[in-house]
Amino acid sequence: MSRTRGLLRILPRSSVTAPAFRRTFTTTRPACVNVGDRIPDIELVEGSPGNKVNLAKELKGKGVIIGVPAAFSPACSASHIPGYLNSPSLKSAGQVFVVSVNDAFVMKAWGATLDPTNKSGIRFLGDPDAKFTGAMDLSFESASIFGNDRSKRYALVVEDGKVKESYVEPDNTGVDGKSPFLQIQPRPQNLLTAIAVSSADKVLK
Fold first, then answer.
1. 140 FRET partner, CA 20 to 30 A, in 12, 84, 149, 166?
2. pLDDT tens by residue, 77-132
3. CA separation (Å) from 50 to 32, 53, 94, 103, 108?
4. Catalytic residue annotation
5. Three-class SS of residue 174?
6. Rounded CA gap, 205 and 11, in Å?
């Protein structure tokens, strides 16, 4: 014991370091959004920065909020959102909104790409400062990929302003946790399998 103490006294303070801890792209913590939670009273944007939408006030009946990490990303564009657009159960889902930490113009362009005539009725909203996403504790660290925190991939079934059902991908994005999802080729047959929790066939019943 005395030899150990002697060695510790000899070692400089700077040479004793804690193990390095590196957070990866898919590091996550349990989502805090729970069944029964109220939708945050926070404004989102639709079409332009001046057009504000408050889902706490907008969703009076039933509806679905779909959260995605990024507009125009392969998984979101090839399978996740098209799964909702083409779902036979969409008509009975109520109001459906897609929310991402993007600006209003990007979300408008993405919506026009996926649903040019807006036949589905799904609305694409921007959460540019991530306040809405953060209020539900559904953001995750992704600065190395996007430059800022982004939204987990999720779906919330809402009724009268409260969360009725919650579907949150456990690895944040719902795709291959070994590499950033932006690098995955847009092959729907693979991505549909990867997005297991928040896909339309799980959420729209």
1. 84
2. 998 999 999 999 999 999 999 999 999 999 999 999 999 999 999 999 999 999 99
3. 30, 10, 25, 11, 13
4. 76
5. coil
6. 64
